[in-house]
Structure formats: structure tokens, C-alpha cells
Amino acid sequence: MTDSDDVAVWLAAGVLRASDNEIDALNLEAMVADAGPGELDSVVEKARLSEQRGGALGMEIVGAILIPVLIEAARQFWSAYQKEFAEKAGKAAANATLEQLRAWFFWRSPSRGQSRAVSHAC
What we know:
The longest helix has 46 residues, at 61-106. The chain has helices at residues 3-18, 22-32, 40-48, 61-106. Helix 1 (3-18) runs antiparallel to helix 2 (22-32), helix 1 packs across helix 4 and helix 3 (40-48) packs antiparallel against helix 4 (61-106). It is mainly alpha-helical and 122 residues long. It contains four helices and no strands. The protein has a domain at 3-81.
């Protein structure tokens, strides 16, 4: 699974546990335990269709509807979070760089914004 899929499963399982659906959370984790990269959707879809096999864990009706919705909601949340984090981190890094450049070129203390007197002896 990809990193975003791992986070989506983790968040979805957390929501299920928080709403006292421990069995659905365990079913979700069992389903995706062996999923390879990019296989989360197919694994969840197979379980949603309630394809019963010997020894397989089947999802209840609520879990069959709820889990795919939770997975998609968690993916959307994580994607938005990463985008916002990258934008804010980029802006903070750019502002810090700009402030340092101002300090170098204008001989100002970055924390005080005051000019320092510079005397050049010849």
C-alpha cells in the first residue's frame, strides 16, 4: 500500500474504533494486511461485495457501506493536510530566507529589525 493508503486505513480504523465498531476496524485491518501498492481499492471492493470464502472474514452490512466511505474521506483529508502543510512550510521557509537576506544586505538584526551601525576603517 502507498503511504496515503496506510494513513487512510489508520484514520478509518480509528474512526470505527471511536464509534464502538471494533469488529469492523479489525475486519478492515485484516483485509488490507496483505494489500500491495495500489491494491487498497480492490481489496475493499472485494470485501464490500461480501464474497465469502472459507476462513475469510466477511464484513457486516454497516461495515460494507461505511468502510469505503471512511477510506475515501481519510484519503481526502490526508491529501488536503499534506497540501496545506507543504504550503505553510514553504511560506515559512521563504519568509525565514527573506528575513535572513534582509539582515545580510541591510545589516539588520532579524529579531529586532534595527539597523546596525557599520564603520569601515580604511
